[in-house]
Structure formats: structure tokens, C-alpha cells
Specification:
The complex is a heterodimer. By secondary structure, chain A is of the alpha/beta class. Helices cover 37% and strands 25% of the residues of chain A. In chain A, the strands form 2 sheets. Chain A has a 6-stranded mixed beta sheet with strand order 6-7-8-3-9-10, sandwiched between helices. A 4-stranded antiparallel beta sheet of chain A has the order 2-1-4-5, with helices on one face. In chain A, helix 4 packs across helix 5. Chain A starts with 8 loop residues before the first strand and ends with a helix. By secondary structure, chain B is mainly α. Chain B has 9 helices and no strands. The longest helix of chain B is centred in the N-terminal third of the chain and has 45 residues. The chains are: A alpha/beta, B mainly alpha. Chains A and B meet through helix 2, helix 3 and helix 5 of A and helix 5 and helix 6 of B.
């Protein structure tokens, strides 16, 4: 896309490899993302999509290769891990809200402990973000009292409250009942227009097609195709992309 | 004299000794459980520090040594009777101290003994918490310490509270073995009272009743704390998403129709 040419590079990933014992999950991944870009990563289960995302914020430790964040290697200690993760937030398939806290506390704790904000400021911005995802009125509820879609919206608010530069979404709608997928996708569509850099692992093909600037198709631990959604969905160059899409889109 | 006559007589003459003994027993149990619990939390926090191969060698080395020390500590104190531990520590380490310090030695022994069990109890509690909770905390940049203190341990502690209460009850009763180093708790008081008239049955029945009352009370209190920790089932929804007009009306009513 023409508009992405002058953008600042956020991630530069070179030769990333991840092995779990003898099992190679990621092999020689080369991947970039620019500021404000929305990149969807699609592919069959077990193709390494989630592992790639988890390597990017070091929840999983890569076996080899390097991940550059604004040109700095995130593993050589030049970027403190805690600061880096505050800048690169994550939304999980299983929400991972703190069960011992209310909705509001979930969005406040990181701001106070990691960003060192005072309580009043933290609560104010937490409420702003809860309002944006339509969950402000549930601020006193505990996670177990919420539906899946509501939990995921709170989880997005919690991630946004850290005012990150990048948000990683790890199959954010895969654990939801079908009727709740829409509310979460709506929030994510809204975010995509705000200039936030988003890397989204998803099985929602309509979302990938309509919202993203780029779509990566992964298979067997490699990025088999990386192109604009137009090309991927209408005229994929790779035979395996074509086979995958015809399988999931059912034609 | 009948059974009851002896009980009354022993109580009349030795009630201050029994009362003092009960106080000492409670002190031992409370101090031992609290300090043991803190030891358990600390050991659990250190033992769960994640190590990656990109960490500096010094950090990995220190952690390895600490973990080794903890393992030895836990195994040694769980595999020997507290009565023997008390004697080894009292006669071996604190022999030069005057007998005034026997209470402190008692508290020391029961605390580190309980700490060894608590370390395993807390570890079980931490394992029971979904790893997603830790990942959620890490993903917003919280450190290991912050993750443990604010997210994992509060949930783990709720889950292990029954076991912690169990340790407390065990401590009330097992502090009796500290009488071997002359800590004057209930069992010690009982032997004094029994020895005076050689009435072991009556004196031990009195001790039984005292132990029972103490443990039963403690159990009830712990149950109450557990219920408090679960928090309320209900929550208030602020405002209304579906009919914003309704909220507005209510607010105007409350503000007293100044318009």
C-alpha cells in the first residue's frame, strides 16, 4: 500500500526460530511491522501463529534469531523487559483477567505498578478506556460475573490503559460464543482506525480482509505469503494460501 | 475424692499455671503459624522466579544456590520430629543462653518447622493458579514480585487457607512437644499439676478441654475469614447502557429539581 511507505519501522524480525524440544514450531521467520499498521496473521491450527505472537513479547523465549523493536534487540537487555511489555500489550484468547480484582482494578493495577501513576489518574484513564469498550457500568464486577465477550472487552481496556504502542491479539474471539464475537470485533475495528499498531492472530477472515493493511499466511512454522488483503483474498500467489482459504471460506 | 472433686481441686490450685500455659500455647501457635506462613510465601516467591538463558550468570547462580538451600531446609525439617529439632537447637545452638530465653527458642523452632510445611502448602497453592494469570500480569509489564504479590498469591492464599488453618490447629497441639525444652505451655502446666497429687487422668482431661476450646475457637474464626475473603456475590451496575434517558431522569430527581 502506498500510504505505508514513509512509516516508521516498529518490528524487524530476523531468522526467528522456536523449538519445543525436537519439535520446530517456527523456522526462519522474517517479519516486519510499521507504526500504525494492522497486520493479520492467518493459518491453520498448529501453524505457529500464536507462538510467533508469544515470542514477540517474550512470553515464549525464541530459540534463535532476533527481534528488533525500533532497531533494538529486545533480548540483549538494552530494553528493560517490563518497559517493553508495557509498550507492547497483549490480548489473550482466554482473556486472563485478574480473577481477584474488579473490572476497574484490572485496568488500574498496571498503570499504578508499572507506569507509577497515582490512583486518581489511573482510575480516570481506566474509566475512559472502559467507556470506550462499553464496559464502564461493570466497573465493580468481578471477571467471573461477566460473559466471555464482556471479559474480552475488559481485557482490551486493560491493555489499552497501559497506552501501548503495539497490541498483540492472540485469537481474541476464538473462545467466545458466536453471538459475542461481533461486540469484540467491533471494538477492534474501532481501534484499527486510531493509529495503534496491531498484530492480530485470527480465524475471522472477514476481519482480516476488511480491517488489516497486510495479511500474513502461516503454514508449518513459516510465513508462506505476506501481502495486502486484496491479493491474499482475491488472487493469492501461493498455492497453499489458496487451498487454506478455500477450505475455511468453504468454496 | 471423686473425679470431679480432683478436677475442681487441681483447677483451684493450678488455674494460674493452666491459664499461663494456655497463653503460652496460643502465643507459640500464633507466632509459629504467622512467621511460618511468611517463610512459606517468601520461599514460594523465590522458587517461582522465572529463569531464562539470557539472564546474567550471577542471577542464575544465586537462584540455583537459594533453591538448593530451600530444598535442604524443607526436607530436613519435614523429615525430623519437632521435639528432636527443639532439643538440637536448644542444647546445641542456644545452650549458652540463660533459661529466660526458652520462650524465644520455642517460637524460633515452631516458626521454622512450620515454615518448611508452609513452603510446600504455598507452592501447591501457586501451582493451582491458572498460568494465564501470570501471563496476563507479565503482558502489562508487571515484574515477578508484583505478579506474585498482587495477582497470584492473593488467589493462592484463598485456596490454601483451609490448609493454613490446619497448620494452625496442628501448631496449637504440637507446641506441647516444646515442653521438652521447658517452655511452660499447657502440657507443661498439666504435668506440674498432675505431679503434685499424682492425678494424671484428671489433669490430662483438663488439658484436653483447654486444647479443644482453643482449636475449636480458632477453626471458627478461620472459617469466618474464608467467607469474608470470598467477597460479595453481587455487584452494582452503574448507569444503563440501553436507556441513557432513564439515568438522566433519576439524576435530576436526586438533585432536587432545581431547573
Amino acid at each position: 500500500m502506498a500510504e505505508t511507505t514513509a512509516r516508521e519501522r516498529v518490528f524487524d524480525i530476523h531468522h526467528l526460530e522456536k523449538k519445543f524440544g525436537e519439535n520446530t514450531v517456527l523456522r526462519d521467520i522474517n517479519f516486519t511491522a510499521d507504526k500504525g499498521e494492522v497486520v493479520c496473521i492467518i493459518g491453520a491450527s498448529g501453524s505457529g501463529k500464536s507462538t510467533l505472537l508469544r515470542c514477540i513479547n517474550l512470553l515464549t523465549e525464541p530459540t534463535s534469531g532476533e527481534i528488533l523493536y525500533h532497531g533494538r534487540n529486545i533480548q540483549d537487555g538494552s530494553v528493560p523487559l517490563s518497559k517493553y511489555r508495557a509498550k507492547v500489550g497483549m490480548v489473550f484468547q482466554q482473556f486472563n483477567l485478574f480473577n481477584n480484582m474488579t473490572v476497574l482494578q484490572n485496568c488500574v493495577i498496571g498503570q499504578m505498578k508499572v507506569l507509577k501513576k497515582n490512583r486518581a489518574d489511573a482510575e480516570k484513564s481506566a474509566k475512559d478506556f472502559l467507556e470506550r469498550v462499553g464496559m464502564l457500568q461493570y466497573q465493580e464486577a468481578k471477571p467471573k460475573q461477566l460473559s466471555g465477550g464482556q471479559k474480552q472487552r475488559v481485557a482490551i481496556a486493560r491493555a489499552l490503559a497501559m497506552e501501548p504502542e503495539v497490541l498483540l491479539f492472540d485469537e481474541p474471539t476464538s473462545a467466545l460464543d458466536p453471538e459475542m464475537v461481533g461486540e469484540v470485533l467491533r471494538v477492534m475495528r474501532g481501534l484499527a482506525t486510531t493509529g495503534l499498531t496491531m498484530l492480530v492472530v485470527t480465524h475471522e477472515m472477514a476481519f482480516a480482509r476488511d480491517v488489516s493493511h497486510r495479511v500474513c499466511f502461516m503454514e508449518n512454522g513459516v510465513i508462506a505469503e505476506d501481502d495486502t488483503p486484496e491479493v491474499i483474498f482475491t488472487n493469492p500467489k501461493n498455492e497453499r494460501t489458496r487451498a487454506f482459504l478455500s477450505r475455511v471460506l468453504g468454496n | 475424692m471423686t473425679f470431679w472433686d480432683w478436677v475442681v481441686r487441681l483447677l483451684q490450685e493450678y488455674w494460674p499455671t493452666f491459664l499461663w500455659g494456655a497463653g503460652t500455647t496460643l502465643l507459640m501457635a500464633v507466632v509459629g503459624t504467622i512467621i511460618g506462613f511468611l517463610i512459606g510465601l517468601l520461599v514460594a516467591i523465590v522458587r517461582t522466579i522465572p529463569v531464562s538463558k539470557s539472564d546474567p550468570l550471577l542471577k542464575r547462580g544465586v537462584l540455583k544456590v537459594l533453591r538448593g538451600i530451600f530444598m535442604v531446609y524443607i526436607e530436613v525439617f519435614r523429615s525430623t520430629p519437632m521435639m528432636v529439632q527443639a532439643m538440637v537447637i536448644y542444647y546445641g545452638v542456644f545452650a549458652s543462653l540463660s533459661s529466660d530465653y526458652v520462650l524465644w527458642v520455642g517460637m524460633f523452632v515452631i516458626s521454622i518447622n512450620t515454615g518448611a510445611y508452609m513452603s510446600e502448602i504455598v507452592r501447591g497453592g501457586v501451582i493451582s493458579i491458572d498460568p494465564g494469570q501470570t501471563e496476563g500480569a507479565q503482558s502489562i509489564g508487571m515484574t515477578h514480585w508484583q505478579t506474585m504479590v498482587h495477582v497470584v498469591l492473593p488467589q493462592a492464599i484463598r485456596n490454601i487457607l483451609p490448609s493454613v488453618g490446619n497448620e494452625f490447629v496442628v501448631n496449637i497441639k504440637d507446641s506441647s512437644v516444646l515442653s521438652v525444652i521447658t517452655v511452660s505451655e499447657v502440657f507443661f502446666a498439666m504435668r506440674m499439676a498432675a505431679g503434685a497429687y499424682v492425678r494424671f487422668f484428671e489433669a490430662s482431661v483438663i488439658a484436653c478441654v483447654i486444647y479443644f476450646v482453643m482449636t475449636f475457637t480458632v477453626t471458627r474464626i478461620l472459617r469466618y475469614i474464608e467467607r469474608r475473603m470470598d467477597g460479595p456475590e453481587n455487584y452494582v451496575i452503574h448507569g444503563s447502557q440501553t436507556v441513557p434517558a432513564a439515568e438522566l431522569t433519576v439524576r435530576q430527581d436526586l438533585e432536587g429539581g432545581e431547573k
